[in-house]
Predict the structure.
Amino acid sequence: QRCPAEIIDIYREDVPLTIEPKSGEWTKEGKTITALRTDGFAYAAIAHQKNGLIQLSLSMKGEHCSAGIVFRAGPDLSTYYALRLEPARKRTIIERVPHIAEVKFRSERDLIYSERQTVDIKLFLDSSIIEAFVAGRSALCCRAYDFAEGEIGLYVEHGEVVFTNISMSQL
């Protein structure tokens, strides 16, 4: 499902982005950021914003690679939400960390992906509403009440990812 252009057009005010690597190998050239971590989790903060529209494209390399956007993250990453693309499991999910057994918090959709394919992502954060459009084919939507604000960042796990056309805007 594609995000209507009229929705994207109302997010007009650009939010400045920086890259603050916290783990893994990160390089930046213009609007392209490359991250590598073959033996675990790599994370870099890019903003501290409560609401807005995050847009980017990514391509992954690695048999078990997963990558995505972390948002409303605590300073030590002990709490956060994530939009996670997992090609090996053929899925895209929005999840809450830490997981709580009594509370099922997960929105999941199928993901059709081949290595090095470029995937476009639009992630809307509006108070408790989280809505994501992935590859023009999947839409995920859920409510998130536990963490209201925090860092926004990019991550890769067990592979390499190239993030391009990264932007954030607000109403």
